[in-house]
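Input C-alpha cells:
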C-alpha cells in the first residue's frame, strides 16, 4: 500500500493555460465529489456497497485509462456523447449541473470550489463511458477536472435507460480526521475522506 497523503484545506479551481490539442488527456481527481446527492430528479446514489465498489473500480481501472489514452479530439470522434456543455448552447443542462454543484456545496461546504463559476467560458464537460456512466466536470486545456458522476444518464435524460435507481440509498460516508490512500500521483484532497477499507476494495 502506498503512503497516505496529508489532508489539505478547501481549495480553489486551478487555472491552467490551454495546451496543444494533440496532447493526451490528463485526468484530474482533486475536485471529485465522491459522495452522492439527490437534487430534484437527479440522483447518483447506489443500490448497495457492492454496486458502489464495482462502479468506482470500473471508473479507476477502465474509464480513466481509456480517457488518458486519447486526446479530447480523438475522444469526441470516438464517442459523440463526450462534449462541452455551454451555458449559451445547453442552458438546461448547464443550469442543472450548476445547481447540483451548489447543492453539494451547501450540504458539504468543505468541498466547495471557491472560484468555480467565475470563469468567462461558463461551461462544463461531459465524458460518456462505454458502460453508460457520465462523468461531469470541466475541461481546462488538456485536463479533465472531474466533479461528480451521473450514474443514470440524468443530465441528458434517456428514456431507454430503465434502471430502477429512484430508491437507491447507498453512498460513501464522510469520516473526520483520517488520511486516505494515495492513488498514483493524486490524493483525494478532502478534510473528511473515504473509508480506507472501501478504497482497498476499489483499488485491489
Amino acid at each position: 500500500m502506498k503512503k497516505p497523503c496529508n489532508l489539505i484545506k478547501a481549495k480553489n479551481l486551478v487555472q491552467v493555460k490551454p495546451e496543444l490539442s494533440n496532447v493526451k488527456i490528463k485526468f484530474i481527481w482533486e475536485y471529485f465529489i465522491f459522495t452522492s446527492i439527490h437534487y430534484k430528479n437527479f440522483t447518483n446514489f447506489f443500490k448497495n456497497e457492492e454496486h458502489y465498489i464495482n462502479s468506482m473500480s470500473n471508473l479507476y481501472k477502465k474509464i480513466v485509462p481509456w480517457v488518458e489514452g486519447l486526446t479530447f479530439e480523438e475522444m469526441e470522434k470516438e464517442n459523440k456523447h463526450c462534449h462541452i456543455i455551454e451555458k449559451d448552447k445547453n442552458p438546461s443542462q448547464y443550469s442543472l449541473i450548476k445547481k447540483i454543484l451548489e447543492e453539494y456545496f451547501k450540504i458539504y461546504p468543505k468541498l466547495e470550489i471557491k472560484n468555480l463559476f467565475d470563469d468567462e467560458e461558463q461551461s462544463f464537460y461531459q465524458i460518456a463511458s462505454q458502460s453508460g456512466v457520465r462523468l461531469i466536470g470541466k475541461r481546462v486545456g488538456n485536463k479533465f477536472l472531474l466533479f461528480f458522476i451521473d450514474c443514470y444518464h440524468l443530465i441528458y435524460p434517456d428514456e431507454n435507460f430503465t434502471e430502477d435507481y429512484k430508491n437507491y440509498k447507498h453512498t460513501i460516508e464522510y469520516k473526520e480526521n483520517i488520511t486516505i490512500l494515495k492513488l498514483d500521483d493524486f490524493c483525494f484532497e478532502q478534510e473528511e475522506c473515504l473509508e480506507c477499507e472501501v478504497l482497498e476494495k476499489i483499488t485491489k
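The first strand starts at residue 26 and ends at 28. The chain is about 25% helix and 20% strand.
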